[in-house]
Amino acid sequence: MEPVSADAARRLPLSELPQAIRRMADERARLSREWATAFGHFNERRRALTLYFHRDEGLGITAAEMQAEIDPHVIDAGEQSRRLKERIIAFENAQRQLEQEFQVKLLAGRADHGDSVTAT
């Protein structure tokens, strides 16, 4: 699933916006859980290597941390975590765009029907 663009959000009719908002929120929540796992894996791998380099290889703690940071597996885990975080942000932005579009169309619909409209 991809986040809804601003143009696509504007083209959605009012009746479809609540469902689209829910889909974006559900995907964001799913990605957040996936990111938490990936970030935990990154931290776990980095800490384990830091401990290994410090205790077993005799490096000072700062040198051990630096060595762990350049490990290819730690780098890959960090990149995976970063990519997931960027997707979460994209879905948050899409959800916010859809919510704003919903409010605009809802207010426009009320105004078209002569309902009293007050800004909140």
Compressed to H and E, one letter per element, the order equals: HHHH
Outline? rod-shaped
Low-confidence stretches: none
Number of strands: 0
- Kindly state the percentage of residues in helix: over 70%
Radius of gyration: 23 Å
Task: Give the averaged pLDDT, no decimals.
Answer: 93
Please characterize this protein's 3D structure:
- This protein is mostly helical and 120 residues long.
- The protein has one domain.
- It is built from 4 helices and no strands.
- The protein has helices spanning 6-11, 17-56, 61-69, 72-112.
- Helix 2 packs across helix 3.
- The longest helix is centred in the C-terminal third of the chain and has 41 residues, at 72-112.
- It is rod-shaped, with a radius of gyration of 23 Å.
